[in-house]
């Protein structure tokens, strides 16, 4: 009993010892000595640690070092640098000898203390880029869908964005993290927007961007997404951001084109900025600044190392030992402002450009410029007044315009801005202020405006006397401005101004060309870099269209060949068919070879009666020509020519009925279709037997038991008589010709018989359209009516 108890008591001890050993071994395995890995002492500074880290990263990067343990060593170097570069993590390691992955003893919430061992919850913690151990960029630069749509996209028209797509359990994301952090610190200082999208939490945004794998890096500029397809190296990422920018943001200026560049301020309505530096390539900071202020300022770059820029350096007395920035406004000989500094930072440049965004007297060319120059009144102490000159762009207005510029340059009031408009280009605005109704252009006039709301309401006053640029005009304007400072109520008129025309808006065709160019470039870029997932919808559409087109051509080709094979005559002309009927082939020759060069017409007899009419397949029709022995050759030849163009239809069959043999069948059929027999109502029944049916054509539908009737219509004038066309066109009733009604010569009679089928082609078209009247019958006449005399 005691023995069993002793064994029972020692079992928990064994479990505790095993767990303690397991925990100790696991703790030892998870422990990383960052100082040994990086090869630095505990007293090493951040600069020394960073220098060693850069050297080791280049040495052990998996893309350059192909040794088996290079990847693991690279991860250890990265983790060690993360610990020692962060003062809090470094202090935590020095104090407790633990990293974040093993949860230090000093923080009770990371683990639970037990009697004889420490239960490390990091046993189930994996050192990936998860939410609990996310890098600094994942929290500081994390993007959400609404934030991207509402903030990033509009802001991308002022600066490019560099966005990383990452996720939890992304092993490759750890590899690019050191390079990413270094690039972010550099580019963010230059003005590039940074963003991070976690696919696990922002799947909607990742799909919206078209990112389907991690890690991915993309750029966004002007609302357009461009993917980075090269090795994640600092130089490549920097070049990628530079390539996102438009090509001609900054113009290279030398002694040859300096006058042309500076003198274009009037056409572009912008100040011009020149940067003097010794590097041959335009700095990225300057390009980013040019993109941010492209709507306000025109930028130029002068390379001080070129001999072609010596005159510029001498003209403006440029110090070649530090970058210098000059801004020119209406004067091209003297800069309006200058800044010079060795460390040209973004904040300094932004402040310099912001203070010189506008000319002294800019022209109002669009509503956006009007809103910024003359903002809407917000508070009483923030009143802004706009002195507006309405003038023209002809040479006769030059003196007055120059005098207005001279007056504005002496202005010292911060609440007053000067501007001008060309009446020809902003007609609707000028008509409201000038209150002119005729088309005669008035002389230049000056107005003082105060905007009251964004809808266009303004208070204004017209400066009496007009504006010619004389000293009296300047004095009157100066007096009005002094009065305005003392009493703002002198603006005693109000009006609603319309929105200004955008004078620099590009034509629709140019915008369409640019849009098409961007779209084609995007497609080519996707094809070149095998972004097949994004290209699948377009490729599917293209291949579907090609398949349908190719399939249609192949089917049509086989169909044509089968029809041609079936249409070959099996017997010579004049021989009898196997069923006993007569088959006639009329060979027709045309400039374009048709599918069939003949029309097969079968005689309707008691032998072919059942197959060609009674048991005709549904949807098929038999077109029957009525003739006699005397008119057979003439009518058949004319009939073949008229119906030749319809022989391509597989639902039409052609036959002829000899009235000399089967007149009883014809009369019986027309008796069944009494509506169709409204031919000679003035004649008695006895005269009906004298009707000449020669040249009649019957379209017989054997399945539905109806017929369509064609009655001959003369179109010639031979013999001095012609038949009239009735209301039904070719099917209408009219006077009929009767054979033997007047004595004629044989040639004249033949010609008139030939003309009986002149309108048959039009009738056939209406037959195919289904617009002919249909005459239904209770049943087809019996075989006894079709049987000829023996």
UniProtKB/TrEMBL annotation:
Tell me, in one coarse class, where this protein mainly resides: endoplasmic reticulum
Q: Where is this region: Disordered?
A: 717-749
A Gene Ontology annotation in the biological process aspect, one of them, is: autophagy
- Keyword Signal applies: yes
SMART domains per UniProt: DnaJ (SM00271)
Keyword terms: Autophagy, Glycoprotein, Signal
Protein role = Plays an important role in regulating the size of autophagosomes during the formation process.
Q: In its UniProt entry, what is this protein called?
A: DnaJ homolog subfamily C member 16
């Amino acid at each position: 009993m005691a023995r069993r108890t002793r064994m029972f008591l020692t079992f928990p001890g064994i479990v505790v010892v095993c767990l303690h050993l397991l925990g100790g071994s696991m703790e030892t395995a998870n422990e990383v000595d960052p100082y040994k890995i990086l090869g630095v002492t505990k007293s090493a500074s951040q600069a020394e640690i960073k220098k060693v880290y850069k050297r080791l990263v280049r040495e052990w990067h998996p893309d350059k070092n192909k040794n088996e343990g290079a990847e693991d060593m690279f991860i250890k170097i990265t983790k060690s640098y993360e610990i020692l570069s962060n003062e809090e993590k470094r202090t935590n390691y020095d104090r407790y000898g633990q990293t974040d992955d093993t949860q230090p003893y000093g923080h009770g919430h990371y683990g639970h203390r037990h009697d004889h061992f420490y239960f490390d919850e990091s046993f189930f913690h994996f050192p990936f880029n998860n939410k609990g151990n996310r890098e600094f960029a994942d929290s500081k630069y994390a993007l959400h869908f609404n934030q991207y749509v509402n903030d990033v996209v509009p802001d991308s028209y002022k600066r490019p964005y560099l966005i990383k797509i990452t996720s939890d359990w992304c092993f490759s994301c750890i590899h690019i993290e050191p390079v990413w952090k270094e690039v972010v610190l550099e580019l963010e200082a230059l003005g590039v927007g940074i963003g991070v999208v976690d696919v696990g939490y922002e799947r909607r945004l990742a799909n919206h961007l078209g990112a389907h794998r991690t890690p991915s890096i993309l750029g966004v500029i002007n609302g357009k997404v461009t993917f980075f397809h090269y090795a994640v190296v600092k130089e490549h990422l920097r070049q990628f951001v530079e390539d996102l920018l438009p090509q001609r943001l900054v113009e290279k200026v030398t002694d040859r084109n300096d006058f042309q560049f500076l003198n274009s301020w009037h056409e572009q309505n912008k100040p011009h900025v020149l940067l003097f530096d010794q590097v041959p390539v335009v700095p990225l900071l300057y390009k980013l600044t040019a993109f941010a202020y492209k709507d306000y300022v025109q930028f130029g770059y002068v390379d001080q190392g070129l001999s072609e820029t010596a005159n510029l350096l001498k003209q403006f007395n440029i110090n070649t030992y530090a970058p210098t920035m000059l801004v020119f406004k209406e004067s091209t000989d003297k800069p309006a402002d200058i800044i010079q500094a060795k460390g040209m930072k973004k904040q300094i440049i932004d402040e310099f450009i912001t203070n010189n965004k506008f000319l002294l007297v800019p022209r109002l060319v669009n509503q956006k410029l009007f809103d910024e120059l003359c903002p809407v009144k917000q508070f009483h102490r923030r009143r802004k007044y706009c002195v507006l000159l309405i003038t023209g762009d002809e040479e006769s207005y030059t003196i007055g315009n120059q005098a207005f510029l001279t007056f504005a340059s002496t202005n010292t009031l911060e609440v007053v801005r000067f501007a001008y408009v060309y009446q020809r280009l902003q007609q609707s605005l000028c008509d409201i202020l000038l209150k002119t109704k005729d088309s005669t252009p008035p002389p230049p006039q000056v107005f003082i405006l105060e905007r009251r709301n964004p809808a266009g309401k303004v208070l204004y006053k017209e400066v009496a006397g007009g504006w010619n640029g004389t000293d009296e005009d300047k004095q009157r304007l100066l007096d009005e401005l002094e009065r305005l400072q003392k009493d703002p109520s002198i603006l005693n008129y109000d009006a609603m101004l319309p929105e200004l025309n955008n004078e620099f808006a590009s034509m629709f065709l140019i915008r369409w060309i640019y849009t098409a160019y961007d779209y084609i470039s995007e497609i080519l870029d996707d094809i070149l870099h095998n972004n097949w997932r994004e290209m699948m919808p377009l490729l599917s559409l293209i291949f579907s269209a090609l398949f349908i087109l190719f399939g249609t051509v192949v089917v049509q080709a086989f169909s044509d060949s089968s029809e041609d094979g079936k249409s070959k005559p099996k017997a010579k002309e004049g021989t009898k068919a196997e069923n006993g009927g007569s088959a006639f082939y009329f060979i027709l020759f045309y400039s374009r070879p048709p599918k069939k060069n003949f029309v097969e017409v079968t005689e309707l007899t008691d032998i072919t009666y059942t197959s060609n009419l009674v048991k005709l397949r549904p949807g098929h029709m038999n077109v029957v020509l009525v003739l006699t022995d005397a008119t057979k050759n003439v009518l058949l030849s004319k009939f073949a020519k008229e119906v030749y163009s319809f022989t391509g239809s597989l639902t039409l069959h052609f036959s002829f009925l000899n009235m000399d043999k089967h007149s009883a069948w014809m009369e019986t059929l027309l008796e069944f279709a009494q509506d169709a027999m409204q031919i000679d109502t003035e004649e008695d029944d006895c005269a009906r037997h004298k009707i000449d049916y020669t040249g009649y054509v019957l379209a017989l539908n054997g399945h539905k038991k109806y017929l369509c009737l064609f009655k001959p219509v003369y179109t010639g004038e031979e013999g001095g008589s012609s038949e009239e066309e009735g209301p039904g066109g070719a099917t209408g009733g009219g006077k009929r010709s009767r054979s033997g009604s007047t004595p004629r010569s044989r040639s004249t009679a033949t010609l008139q018989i030939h003309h009986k089928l002149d309108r048959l082609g039009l009738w056939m078209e209406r037959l195919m359209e289904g617009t002919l009247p249909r005459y239904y019958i209770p049943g087809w006449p019996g075989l006894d009516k079709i049987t000829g005399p023996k």
